[in-house]
Amino acid sequence: MAEESDAEKTEAASAKRLEQAREEGDVPRSRELATFTVLMTAGCGLWFTGTGLVRQLNATMVSGLSMDREQIFDASAMILRVGADIAAVMLACLPLAVAVMVVALASPLLIGGWLFSTKAFTPNFMKLNPLAGLGNMFSTNALVELLKAVAKTILVGAVAWLVVMSKKDAVFSLAMEPLGSGSAHLVDLLATSFLYIVGGLGVVAAIDGPYQVWHYANKLKMTRQEMIQESKESDGNPQIKGRIRQLQREMAKRRMMADVPTADVVVTNPTHYAVALKYADGQRGAPRVVAKGSDEVAAKIRELAKQHNVAMLEAPALARALHKHTEIGDEIPEALYAAVAEVLAYVFQLRAYKKGATKYPDRPTTLAVPPELDPHNPASNKKPDNNNGATP
């Protein structure tokens, strides 16, 4: 199978690209769906309020044709009368108009959502390019729009013909009905026929809505190179980021090495691991790890400890446990309090010996290190909880 070309748009649009398109006023829209919802609302509103609307209009018409002598010869009275009739007509049509307006404003929420973008008002002279216009005329989207127009014409025409043929007897009988009941019956026939015809548009809208969503997603697809470039712009060049991380590690290592001379003791493995501990006497809190490392870093820690006369103790199990279960600046795990207390007691006695205050202390040989904390033991699979504030 041939390898996929990077020039082909095979990757789904990223969140950044979708946001940029939205800022430019480009969101999925279905005119068929919006038209269907508005017309269906108008038809339903006419069906529910049509009878009352006709009665109100009839009453307004009768009122408008009934004028007394004062209104005929007084222009101001005539104006007031006409204004009152217009207000009555507007008030009668207000519920239907409000319902249609609300649905027209809410219809964008079905696909794409509300959007106001000033970039959509910015002149784009590329749209005046005749070659681009010809390309749009013969594009896939133009073909789809043509098929939709043909489908709407055929579907709506067929539904309208069926409705008219089924309602022709009722239409002819309207001439035999009184004006009031005939007007109400006429409105009911119009509303029912309108709903049937708009229902035909619902078929087109049900197809066009998902198609517009698919077409929008397909239009914004990206090539692999575009994805890589966007990732570099958003997250930075991987090589630069790697270099930054390397420099950060080196700076952290230098800070760690600077803390080694302040440590009370360095626990070693003896060659693979080294962990420097410091205990602030008189302050709350357990001893903390000020430096740790393995192999070359461990050798550097031992070298600095030797140069600055920091006590070192070979305790393989304890060194491995501290190296695995602590980070720089952490207090030691509670499970290691007893072992570290033994080590610190040895260190403090060693300092006293150097001052001539006591005899040479015995080096601790058996430290209480739980087997599950030793990485050489398979049971060592989690970092134990620290009990901040406690002292060994």
Outline:
With 392 residues, this protein is mainly alpha-helical.
Biggest sheet character: 4 strands, mixed
What's the number of extended β-strand segments? Answer: 4
Proportion of β residues?
5-15%
Shape: elongated
Number of helical segments with 4 or more residues: 12
What is the mean predicted local confidence, pLDDT?
78
Task: Kindly report the spatial arrangement of strands forming the biggest sheet.
Answer: 3-2-1-4
N-to-C CA distance = 66 Å
- Estimated structural class: mainly alpha
Rg calculated over all Cα atoms: 43 Å
Query: How much helicity do the residues have?
Result: 55-70%
The succession of helices and strands, N to C, reads HHHHHHHHHEEEHEHH
What is the assembly state of the chains in this entry?
single chain
Low-confidence stretches: 1-6, 383-392
SSE topology:
Elements: H1 15-23, H2 31-65, H3 69-73, H4 75-106, H5 130-137, H6 140-172, H7 179-219, H8 224-235, H9 238-259, E1 265-268, E2 273-278, E3 288-294, H10 296-307, E4 311-314, H11 316-325, H12 337-354
Parallel strand pairs: 1-4
Antiparallel strand pairs: 1-2, 2-3
Helix pairs in contact: 2-4, 2-7, 6-7
Give a structural overview.
The protein is mostly helical and 392 residues long. The chain is built from twelve helices and four strands, in the order αααααααααβββαβαα. It has helices at residues 15-23, 31-65, 69-73, 75-106, 130-137, 140-172, 179-219, 224-235, 238-259, 296-307, 316-325, 337-354; strands at 265-268, 273-278, 288-294, 311-314. A four-stranded mixed beta sheet has the order 3-2-1-4, sandwiched between helices. Helix 2 (31-65) packs antiparallel against helix 7 and helix 6 packs antiparallel against helix 7 (179-219). The longest helix has 41 residues, at 179-219. The protein starts with 14 loop residues before the first helix and ends in a 38-residue tail after the last helix. The model is unreliable at 1-6 and 383-392 (pLDDT under 50).
